[in-house]
Structures are given as structure tokens and as C-alpha cells.
Amino acid sequence: MEGTVTFINVLDVDPERQQELIALLKEGTEEVIRHRPGFVSLTLYASADGKRVVNVAEWRSAEDVAATREDPAAQEYAKRTARVATAAASLCSVVGRWG
Amino acid sequence: MEGTVTFINVLDVDPERQQELIALLKEGTEEVIRHRPGFVSLTLYASADGKRVVNVAEWRSAEDVAATREDPAAQEYAKRTARVATAAASLCSVVGRWG
């Protein structure tokens, strides 16, 4: 979608806990994230080597991302995620698209 | 697309060189990557803080990704990228999609 922003969270995880992390991120998306104002789409990727999960979430605006990060229910999921994985999040915009 | 794989490359970069990195990745995609067998789609994201670029490339199969990583023209672009940024790449599959 034109004019949206993308919040990309790269999560490094012990391969033994990758499935637990995926289940937690799915639950957080189902219960909280997809209901938030400005939510557009979310794709969850799991690396084949088990060491990483990448969360690519598209939002209407940077303000919607900021409001979600302040939301207590979203923060609770972020805390639970931090117990399982090391997260490196960035607010991004699309600068090129092919295919 | 069902059954594809996604090659995600997270590139950490000095903010002063983010634009140079984006130009290089665009050139590599235009000149080499999008013409490779099994290429499906590619999206390039730039972080607002200037410190990161994320390359999300969808391919028909893991074999197509492996063949591209062996391709001399692709390797040349990977070498040029390594001079500008620190790359952490993972072969991934989609485990969830909403929206």
C-alpha cells in the first residue's frame, strides 16, 4: 500500500526456542496487533537454521506504530518476547519493489 | 506465493552511507537478481534512523537461492555490498500472514 510505514523486528533466538517464539508472536498478533488502529498487514518469517524470526508489519503511519508501542497489551507481549529472543527493531519505508 | 522461500538480508550501515547502499542494492537487483531463475519478488526497506537496510527477496526454491549465491555477477555485488555494510542473511519461510 502506498504511503505506509513498515516496522521490521529481527529476532535472534536459540534454535531450541524458535517454535516457542513463533507461537508467542502469532498469539500477540492475533490477540493485540491486528486489532490496533492503523494496522495494515503482518508477515512472520522463520529462518531455516532456527536462529532467527523476522516480523514485517505494515502500518498506516509512524504515529500508529508509536501508539502501539505505548499500548500496555502490546508492551506485555514485547516483554514476553524479550525473555525468549533478542530483538532489533527498525521503523522503515519501502525504497524499492520488484516482481 | 505458496511454497516459495524468502531470503532476508539485514544490512547494518553507517547512516552517511545508507543512500549509497540503497543505490548499490537497486543496481544489483535491476542488473542481476531479478533476471535470475526462480526470482519471484524483492522489496527493499530503508530504516528511518539511517542505520539499516532490509532486503526481502522471495524465490521459487532454496536451490534457486543457492545457485544465485554461486553466480559470479551476484557475488560481485555481494562483495561491493560488504564494503559498505555488515550483512546478516537468512533463508526463511513464511510461518504467518495477516492482512
In short:
Two copies of one chain form a homodimer. Chain A is built from three helices and four strands; from the N terminus they run βαββααβ.
- From the N-terminal CA to the C-terminal CA of chain A, the straight-line distance is 15 Å
- The assigned structural class of chain A equals alpha+beta
Poorly predicted runs of chain A are: none
The H/E string of chain A reads EHEEHHE
What is the helix fraction of residues of chain A, given as a range? 25-40%
**SS field, number of helical segments of chain A:** 3
Percent in strands of chain A: 35-45%
Q: Roughly how many Å is the radius of gyration of chain A? A: 13 Å
Give a quick account of the main beta sheet of chain A: strands, pairing sense, barrel closure: 4 strands, antiparallel
Number of strands of chain A: 4
Using CB atoms under 8 Å apart, which protein chain pair has the greatest interface? Answer: A-B, 40 and 40 residues
* Shape annotation of chain A: globular
Provide an overview of this structure.
The structure is a homodimer of 99-residue chains. Chain A is globular and about 40 Å long. In chain A, helix 1 (18-31) runs antiparallel to helix 3 (72-82). The two termini of chain A are 15 Å apart. In chain A, 34% of the residues lie in helices and 40% in strands. By secondary structure, chain A is an alpha+beta fold. The first copy, chain A, is built from three helices and four strands. The A-B interface holds A 5-6, 8, 10, 22, 25-26, 29-30, 33-34, 39-49, 51-54, 56, 58, 62, 88, 90-99 and B 5-6, 8, 10, 22, 25-26, 29-30, 33-34, 39-49, 51-54, 56, 58, 62, 88, 90-99.
